[in-house]
Amino acid sequence: MFSPPIVLQMPDNLQMSDEEFYQFCQINRHYRIERDRKGEISIMPPTGGETGNRNFNVALQLGIWSEADGTGICFDSSTGFILSTGAERSPDAAWMSLERWNSLTPEQQEKFPPLCPDFVVELRSASDKLKPLQEKMQEYIQEPGVKLGWLIDRKHRRVYIYRPGMDVECLENPATVSGEPVLPGFVLNMAKIW
Q1: CA distance linking residue 159 with residue 61, whole number of Å
Q2: C-alpha to C-alpha distance for 192 and 173, rounded to whole angstroms
């Protein structure tokens, strides 16, 4: 069985700056590490083969669409983003408009970009509890510039759709999920995701 994330609580006097956290993550590259707005650090083990394959298929479909569309760029699950709350998060897949990306300095692009992407995807793995992922999605959707988020719950074959200022929509066992109007023409085929 896969182990859940390890959550480290840090005393106020041991909080890392963004640069120190970036260096901490570089030293521990074999883990996926996130930090929430309270400074708690979550250390997640690498995914298993099945989840890794499903993450890849989400990123592949998004990447193919993005290359054809040409208005933005994609990111994989290894990319950390600094949110306005101070949290550092790594969605399983993400897309950002070129306008927002190009507004960053080269140093900001090289490290953890200090903004949340326009579109974020989280894929629930076997070890993930649903509630923390839903809380993470709520955190994303409140960020400036975020327009769309999907939480894919493979266990229950549901896709939760998050949009700013709107109630969460839940699709039951959809064959496809459309990114309209945020991602014109992008349709995720769920056959390779379930």
Answers
A1: 16
A2: 13
Retrieve residue 142's tokens. 């409140």
Structural tokens at position 32: 């996926």
What radius of gyration, in Å, describes the C-alpha atoms of the chain?
16
Upper half-sphere CA count for residue 130 (Cβ side, 13 Å): 9
Report whether 122 contacts 152 (CB < 8 A).
yes
Cα of first residue to Cα of last residue in the chain, in angstroms, is 19
CA atoms of 134 and 164, how far apart (whole Å): 14
Tell me what percent of the residues of the chain surpass a pLDDT of 90: 78
Lowest mean pLDDT among 62-71, 126-135, 146-155: 126-135
Please give the single-letter amino acid code of residue 165.
G
Could you tell me the pTM of the whole model?
0.89
Torsion angle of the four alpha carbons 109, 163, 6, 112, in this order, in degrees rounded to the nearest 10: 10
SS3 28: coil
How many CA atoms does the CB half-sphere of 158 hold within 13 Å? 12
